[in-house]
Amino acid sequence: MKLDVITLDGGKAGDIELDAELFGLEPRADILHRVVRWQRNNAQAGTHKVKTRSEVSYSTKKIYRQKGTGGARHGSRKAPIFRKGGIYKGPTPRSHGHDLPKKFRKLGLKHALSAKAKAGELVVIDGIETEGKTAALAKQVKNLGWKRALIIDGAAVNEAFLQASRNIEGLDVLPSMGANVYDILRRDTLVLTKAGVQALEERLK
After folding, report:
1. How many Å apart are CA 105 and CA 109, to the nearest integer?
2. Regarding beta strands 149-152 and 189-193, do their DSSP bridges make them parallel or antiparallel, or are they unpaired?
3. Which of 84, 87, 133, 197 is most buried, judged by most C-beta within 10 A?
4. What is the per-residue pLDDT for 1?
5. Cα 130 to Cα 66: distance, rounded to the nearest angstrom
6. What is the pLDDT of residue 182?
7. Residues 169, 171, 177, 182, CA torsion sign
């Protein structure tokens, strides 16, 4: 499939032939869902923790006599039934991550790229060379109509562009190795440089 290539100023810079194996698939929501879930689960810290009855600070003395009170026969203030007592079966530190085959992860990335291409939310630019001025870049981004965009460059991102883009709301920049399904899907526009397209094709073939 062919797509027009533009410059940061909005001018035309020819066209590019995109690989149908990466950008021409019929997107499958089930594949995208599994990969995004794998990503988000691996990103969880898993540091949530509550105190059990063996960890709360209370005396171990029996709180009142066994018989004659007319109440339940309690033996400890640490019981979960009491306020500030230990929590029963609460969360403990653990990993939320699970395995997903590399082939499936690669397939998910292909479907994410294809989903953007099919929705008309894929843009290819010639390059991201800039003077490193945030105000100038922000004006260019506004003129191009990118409100929530992810820009994927080649193996290394242009340092001046990276510095200029840091303070622009809604603009994310990643190298080709950082391209992932979650970040692609959560942005309205996916912007690839010509170097980024080439790097992604080499990575996913």
Report:
1. 6
2. parallel
3. 197
4. 81
5. 80
6. 96
7. positive
Model confidence at 59: pLDDT above 90:
no
Residue pair 176/205 in contact (Cβ under 8 Å)? The answer is: no
Condensed to tens digits (0 to 9), the pLDDT of residues 162-194 reads 899 998 999 999 999 999 999 999 999 999 999
CA 195 from centre of chain: 23
**Please, are residues 111 and 25 in contact by the beta-carbon 8 Å criterion?**
yes
Instruction: Dig out the tokens for 192 from the structure.
Output: 């690839």
3-state secondary structure the chain: CEEEEECCCCCEEEEEECCHHHHCCCCCHHHHHHHHHHHHHHHCCCCCCCCCCCCCCCCCCCCCCCCCCCCCCCCCCCCCCCCCCCCCCCCCCCCCCCCCCHHHHHHHHHHHHHHHHHCCCEEEECCCCCCCCHHHHHHHHHHHCCCCEEEECCCCCCHHHHHHHCCCCCEEEECHHHCCHHHHHHCCEEEEEHHHHHHHHHHHC
Kindly list the domain boundaries of the chain, sorted by start residue. 2-45+97-204, 50-90
Class in CATH terms, 2-45+97-204: alpha beta
User: Exposed/middle/buried for 173, CB within 10 Å: 0-12, 13-18, 19+?
Assistant: buried
Q: Give the separation between CA 128 and CA 5, rounded to whole angstroms.
A: 12
Between the CA of residue 43 and those of 40, 95, 151, what are the distances in Å? 5, 10, 22
